[in-house]
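Notes from the 1:1 (GR / supervisor)

We went over the backlog. Supervisor wanted to see one worked example end to end before approving the batch request, so GR pasted a single chain during the call. The sequence is below; no edits were made to it. Supervisor asked that the structure be written out right there so they could see what the output format looks like.
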Amino acid sequence: MAFRKPISTLGGLTWWRNLQQNEYFIMQEHKVGVPMWPYKYRILMRENRMEIANSNDYDEIMYDWNYLDSNAVPQLNEKVDWLKDGSSIIDLITKIVLKKIAPK
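Structure output shown during the call:
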């Protein structure tokens, strides 16, 4: 899936049918598709309804969906809380300050 700037959704549910949804994304299928629309499937960000992926192939859009689901959403169960103790925070701030004050 190549990165591109999200674009507006244009058309809403008049031309699109929701296939899958989760907390972050919506996958839709165009009711007509080609030649009326250049692609059959798309994935939108739920937060701002911007399109982030599209395809004419169902397998490809499912690959994009699975990729986004496993890599683009917050993985709270895998979060490493390395700033939990105060000494790590102090060490981090000290390193930042020393870089700004005495650059090499």
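Supervisor's comment: Strands lie at 16-21, 25-30, 41-45, 51-55.
Batch request approved.
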